[in-house]
C-alpha cells in the first residue's frame, strides 16, 4: 500500500480528504468511494475503539484512497496498537513542541540495530495485521517504509514552534486544526476570526519553510481555497457525520417549510 508520505510526494495537486467520524465501516466505504484522495479515521473524537477500527480499514482498503488514523493522544501504547492493526498512516493530535513530535515518531518506529535509530514500538509483527501476520518479508527492518507520521498543530505554542516541529526527523507532514487552535487562543468557536486565520497562515509558511507538506482542516469552501492558495498540500473538507446532518436537514426542510406556509393560510 502507498503511505501518506508517498501520496504527498507523487501528488500533482493538493490532496482532498474526508473524515470518518461516525465509526461506521459502511460510511467509511461510502466516503472511500467518493473520489477523495484521503480518508481520515477519527479515533480522537469519534466513537471508535481499536477493534472497531479494523472493519473500517478493511472497508476502505478496496478503494484507491489513502487512509489515515488519528489516534486519541500522543500515547506509545495506542500508536503501537493502531499500527499493529494495519494502519499505515497515523495522525497524532496536540503536538505543540519538537519533543512532542519526537515522541510520536519514536512510538511509531521499531528500534534500529546498533543505535541506527531510536524507536519504541513493541515488536509483535508476527502476530499482527501490519506485517500480514509475518507474510511481509523483513517487515521489522523495513517498517519505516510502510509507516508515515503526521503531527497536528492546534495550539498557540504549536504555532510558535511550527518550524521546529516540522523539522523533526520522521515527521512526514503537519496538519493544522483551526478549531482547537482558536480555543487555545482564547477564541473558542471562532476559527474564522482574523487572528486564527493569521495563525493558520503563519503555520503554513513555517512548515513549508523547512520543506515539509502541510495541510489544514477546512470545512468551509473559502477556507479551503485560501489555504490551498497559501500552499497547503492537502485539505480535509467534510466529515460523514456533518454531511449526514446537513443533508438530512436539507432533505426535510423544504417540505416542512411548505407545511408551515400551508398552515398559515
Question: What would you say this structure looks like, in words?
Answer:
With 265 residues, this protein is an alpha/beta fold. The chain has one domain: TIM Barrel (Alpha-Beta Barrel), CATH 3.20.20. 45% of the residues lie in helices and 15% in strands. Strands 1-2-3-4-5-6-7-8 form an 8-stranded parallel β-barrel, surrounded by 8 helices. The longest helix is centred in the last third of the chain and has 25 residues, at 240-264. The mean pLDDT is 95.
Short précis:
With 265 residues, this protein is α/β, with parallel strands linked by helices.
Mean pLDDT: 95
Largest sheet, strands/sense/barrel: 8 strands, parallel, barrel
Shape: globular
How many distinct helices? 12
Q: Sketch the topology as an H/E string, one letter per element.
A: HEHEHEHEHHEHHEHHEHEH
Quote the beta fraction. 15-25%
Just name the CATH architecture: Alpha-Beta Barrel
**Which topology does CATH recognise?**
TIM Barrel
Strand order of the largest sheet: 1-2-3-4-5-6-7-8
CATH C-level class is: Alpha Beta
* Intertermini distance: 62 Å
Number of domains: 1
Low-pLDDT residue intervals, each spanning 5 or more residues? none
CATH superfamily (homologous) name: Phosphoenolpyruvate-binding domains
Task: Please identify the structural class as seen in this structure.
Answer: alpha/beta
The helicity comes to: 40-55%
The count of β-strands is 8
Q: Give the radius of gyration.
A: 20 Å
Amino acid at each position: 500500500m502507498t503511505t501518506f508520505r508517498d501520496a504527498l510526494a507523487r501528488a500533482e495537486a493538493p490532496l482532498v480528504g474526508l473524515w470518518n467520524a461516525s465509526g461506521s465501516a459502511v460510511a467509511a466505504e461510502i466516503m472511500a468511494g467518493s473520489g477523495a484522495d484521503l480518508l481520515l479515521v477519527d479515533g480522537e473524537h469519534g466513537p471508535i475503539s481499536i477493534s472497531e477500527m479494523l472493519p473500517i480499514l478493511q472497508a476502505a482498503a478496496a478503494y484507491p484512497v489513502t487512509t489515515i488514523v488519528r489516534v486519541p493522544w500522543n500515547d506509545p501504547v495506542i500508536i503501537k496498537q493502531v499500527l499493529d492493526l494495519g494502519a499505515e498512516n497515523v495522525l497524532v493530535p496536540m503536538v505543540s513542541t519538537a519533543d512532542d513530535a519526537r515522541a510520536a515518531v519514536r512510538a511509531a518506529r521499531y528500534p534500529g540495530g546498533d543505535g541506527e535509530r531510536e524507536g519504541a514500538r513493541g515488536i509483535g509483527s508476527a502476530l499482527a495485521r501490519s506485517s500480514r501476520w509475518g507474510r511481509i518479508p523483513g517487515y521489522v527492518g523495513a517498517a519505516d517504509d510502510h509507516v508515515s507520521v503526521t503531527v497536528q498543530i492546534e495550539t498557540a505554542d504549536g504555532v510558535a514552534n511550527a518550524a521546529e516541529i516540522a523539522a523533526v526527523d520522521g515527521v512526514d507532514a503537519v496538519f493544522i486544526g483551526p478549531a482547537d487552535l482558536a480555543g487555545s487562543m482564547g477564541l473558542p468557536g471562532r476559527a474564522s476570526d482574523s487572528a486564527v486565520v493569521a495563525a493558520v497562515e503563519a503555520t503554513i509558511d513555517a512548515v513549508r519553510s523547512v520543506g515539509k507538506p502541510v495541510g489544514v482542516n477546512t470545512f468551509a469552501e473559502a477556507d479551503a481555497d485560501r489555504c490551498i492558495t497559501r500552499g497547503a498540500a492537502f485539505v480535509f473538507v467534510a466529515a460523514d457525520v456533518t454531511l449526514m446532518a446537513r443533508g438530512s436537514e436539507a432533505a426535510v426542510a423544504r417540505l416542512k417549510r411548505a407545511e408551515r406556509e400551508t398552515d398559515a393560510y
